[in-house]
Structure formats: structure tokens, C-alpha cells
Amino acid sequence: MRPLGLGAFAALIIAAMIPVAVMSAAKAPEGIPEAARKQGLAEAPAVAQAAGITCQVADARFVGKSTDAKTKISTSYYEIDCNQGLGFVLANVTGSKPTAFTCIEANTPQPDGKPSALPCKLPGNADPKADLAPLLAAAKTVCTPEAARGIGQSAKNTFLEIACQGGVGYVMQAGAPANPDSPTVASDCLIYDSADGNIKCTLHDKAYRLAVMDQFVTAANNGCVAKDKRYIGLSQAGATYYEAACTDGKGYIYKVEKGALASATPCEKAAMLLGGCELTNAKEAETAQAGLYTKLAQKVGFDCQVSKYAPFPSPAGKDIVELACSNRPDGGVGIFGGPNDKSSVIDCAHAPVAGYRCSFTPESATNGLLTADLKKQGKASCDVSKSRLVGKTAKGTTYVEVACSDGLKGYIIEYSADPIAPISTVGCAFTKDCKLPGNV
């Protein structure tokens, strides 16, 4: 970030961090001398072009000229109103490339709270935040600005803070100068609340910004009355995640996509989701949930003392979760529904047939069950050492390839879908579909 001093004539100080806003009320435009406008319209378009501003100048004024007493270098100042996007204040230093700052930056008060020494005064620049629409569109951000301020500039970027109606705020990173067609990114102010660095949002406080969560907590309809809130972050896919701790001791992680609630995950099931919950004692809830899964698994005949679990994406009304067991080497995938639904647990050896992949259970713990399947098909000489899902058939059955520990060629086992059971085998010596080492 670099502040800009515009010399002895007018000290326009645009600091790297300024906690004062250009608020929403528009100023009454001051009268512009006709001579200043005439000179500005004659000279400013060329200065703007030299500064890299791409807009068509709709109005302009010559502000004045100063000369440094020591260097004798003179600087001329202009204000321009663009036909599209933000207006600018220009400083044309003799022998140097002109510099430009948006009217949002120019109107931002000085660090001591005093008004800017060189604000924008043209009628078309009376409400600069209203000119942010092209940059917001370039950033693919929906926002009706209620306030804006300048943060600062780097050699290539302009940084602005924008507060939107509804409580959301953004740090906008545009080009320098901030042309309407410049590459623009808008990052949620909540990202900067807990981040290290100089950039902070100051138009509103963190609690005000987190109020945007209220609509998602209500939409989840899970009985949560939030007592504490946290912004977690963005996924690579662009979803936003929040956490809420509830007055009843429960907690949830909320996934928001395109401004709407996509899911609400209880903290006891959120350990694998962006680091899990921090505002709620999730360990206590996880222990209770593991006990519940133990009972549900045993109820359907799968003897598992659940030590940990991880949820799979599940349809409404279903709870599909991988189970790790403390009393046996292999785990399973539990498919639990409501009181009128049939629940089941699929052991990890056969979970791929149903479309699930276990991560807690090592492959070596599943080989014995596949060996038993071969024996059911009359193939008693092979102790399975490795397996691979081949794929599904048009009739709905599934092929699984297995290799044998003795190094001889293995088999492809065909499984029915419901119930999952072996129905046929073919030796790898008689098919080209085998890929595992020793089977080719």
C-alpha cells in the first residue's frame, strides 16, 4: 500500500488504513467555475489517458497547479467524471506519468478525521459509491453499497472497502487505476477479521457483519438460537461456511451457496468439515453420537463398538456414515433412516459394491471377507491379498477384481446389488479386464 501526497497545493492523504467512511448521503455539489471546467475538459482527457484511465471523460475541471520550491517541478491537478464507473482525481507531475485516485479515495477523510483536502466536486461524482456497479459486476458480486472508503493502492491494485445493504461487506481489489474493465476481486470482510495483515474492514464491526448468518440459522429450522457465531471460510467450489453455537448446547456448521442455505451439519458430524466446530464442545457430542451409532449398528447385526465416524453425503431422511470399530479390524458403512426405514451396515469389503469407499479400514482388514466369497464360489485356493472395483454392468451387478497372496492369477467376482452377494467368478487367465499385479 502507498499513500499519495499531492504536494504543497493540496495534501490529499490516502492512507493504507483509514477508519472513516464515505457515507451514503450525497453532498450538494459546489459551483464549478466555468473557466476551470473549460480548461479541465481541454486538458484532462489526455492526462487521464496517460494515467491509464480507459473511460470516456464526461465532465472535468482544472483544480490548480503547484510548483515545488526546491525542485521547481510543477504538478497540475484535475478531477474527471467518467461516462461509466468511478470518477478520478489526477495529478500530472511534469516529466512523470500522471497518477490517479478514485473519488472514493479522494473523498476519504484524512487520518486525523479532517475532511479531504482535495475531494471530488463535479456533479457526476457527488455520490461515488453509486458508480461502483461496473466494478461489482466485474467481481461477480451482488451488492447495493451503503458506504465505501479508500484503503490504499499498490503499484498494480486499488483497494476499497464497500459496505452493502444487508450487512455484508467486501474488500475490493481492482486495477490501478480502477477502470471499469479492470480485473476485480471482492473478498468478504469477514475473511480479514481474524487474518493477520494491514487490511481490515472498519465501516462496520464484526458482529454487524455476522448478522448475515441469522437468515441461514432460521432457514435450517433446527431449533438453534445462536449465542455465538463464526465465519469459517470459503471452499474451493465457492461455498461459504459459518458456525453457530446454540443456547441449548448444540452447534452447527452452515454451508451457503449463492446466498442460500445448502446444508446444516451438526457439530458431532462436522469433524471432517473444514476443521470442524470451534464454538461448541464437539468432542462430547461426538462421543454421544458414537454411542448412538454403536447401538444402531448392533441393532442390525453388525457388532461394532464405534470409535470414530465420518458422514457421507446423504439424501433427506437418511444418515449414511462410515464407522470405525474398536472391537474388530474392519469397519462398515451405516445406512440409517427413520423409524419406518430399513437400516443396514455394509462391511468395508463390500462397501464399494454399494458405491462407498472406506477410509478408516485398511484394505488388509477386508481381504478375509473377499476370500470367503471366493470359497462360496468354489475357489478355495486363493487367499485375497488385494482388490479393485472394476465397475457395474448394465443389469446392475458389480465386478470386483481380487489378487491372490500366492502370486497366481486371481479372479473377477460378480456381485448382486440387493442383497450384496457373490453370484459368479471368472479367472483372470480367461479375461483381459484384470489389472492388479500378478493378474495380468
Principal-axes geometry comes out as elongated
Radius of gyration: 33 Å
Whole-number total of structural domains: 4
Low-confidence stretches: 1-29
Number of H/I helices:
8
* Strand order, largest beta sheet: 1-6-7-8-9
What's the mean pLDDT score? Answer: 89
Beta-strand share of residues = 25-35%
SSE topology string: EHEEEEHHEEEEHHHEEEEHEEEEHEEEE
Characterize the largest beta sheet: strand count, sense, and whether it forms a barrel: 5 strands, antiparallel
Walkthrough of the structure:
The chain has helices at residues 34-50, 103-107, 133-138, 190-193, 206-210, 214-220, 282-299, 367-376; strands at 22-23, 57-67, 74-82, 88-93, 99-102, 145-153, 157-164, 169-175, 185-188, 226-234, 240-246, 251-257, 260-266, 306-311, 319-325, 332-336, 344-347, 384-392, 398-404, 411-416, 421-427. The chain folds into four domains: 22-193, no CATH class; 210-280; 284-342; 366-430. The protein is elongated and about 100 Å long. The protein is 16% helix and 32% strand. The longest helix is centred in the middle third of the chain and has 18 residues, at 282-299. The model is unreliable at 1-29 (pLDDT under 50). The protein is α+β, with helices and mostly antiparallel strands. The strands form five sheets. It has a five-stranded antiparallel β-sheet with strand order 1-6-7-8-9. Strands 2-3-4-5 form a four-stranded antiparallel β-sheet.
